[in-house]
Amino acid sequence: MGRLYFNRQPIPDYKPSQLRRKIVLIQQIPVLVKGSLRDNLLLPFSFRQNADMEKPDEGKLKKMLGELQLDALPLEKNATELSVGQAQRVCLIRGLLLSPEVVLLDEPTSALDRESLVLVEEMIERLHTDYGCMVVMVSHHSDSSRGTDHTVWRLENGRLEIRR
Q1: How far apart are CA 104 and CA 4, in angstroms?
Q2: For residue 128, how many other CB atoms are within 10 A of its CB?
Q3: Residue 151's CB: how many other CB atoms inside 10 A?
Q4: Which domains are seen in the chain, by residue range?
Q5: pTM of the shown model
Q6: Per-residue pLDDT of the chain (164 residues; tens, 9 = 90+)
Q7: Nearest to 33 by CA among 82, 93, 97, 79
């Protein structure tokens, strides 16, 4: 039986709240709560385990929205009115606001239109260089990792192929 480690420390040694800050999961289907765009971006900071974290100010929220071409959206906009592509980008921003070390992406581009797809792919490429994150992405599209410097693990017909 093996052990799973993160930063050379066994996973069970971490509190779940610590891991949720260090390792962020962005799901295939974006999950937003009722309320404004601001409410959704600041949601993680409303949890007790994140009470010691400084909430990002309006300037930081707008900067991050601008990086994914959502700067035209007012922070007061009702989140239920966002398109799937916009919601996916909001979920990505929400996760990045926690300054994670690892970002897990489950099919982040599967339901996006071409414009949103390009924006999210560009952001994924910048996650490591600009944010210092390790990125683990699951995708059914073989071309969704083009242009990045990484290792690709491809599982096909029961065989694992590793490309660097």
Answers
A1: 16
A2: 15
A3: 8
A4: 5-163 (3.40.50.300)
A5: 0.81
A6: 688 899 999 999 999 988 988 999 988 888 999 999 999 999 999 999 888 999 999 999 999 999 888 999 999 999 999 988 899 889 989 999 999 999 998 887 777 778 777 777 787 888 878 878 888 888 776 555 545 556 777 777 888 788 77
A7: 79
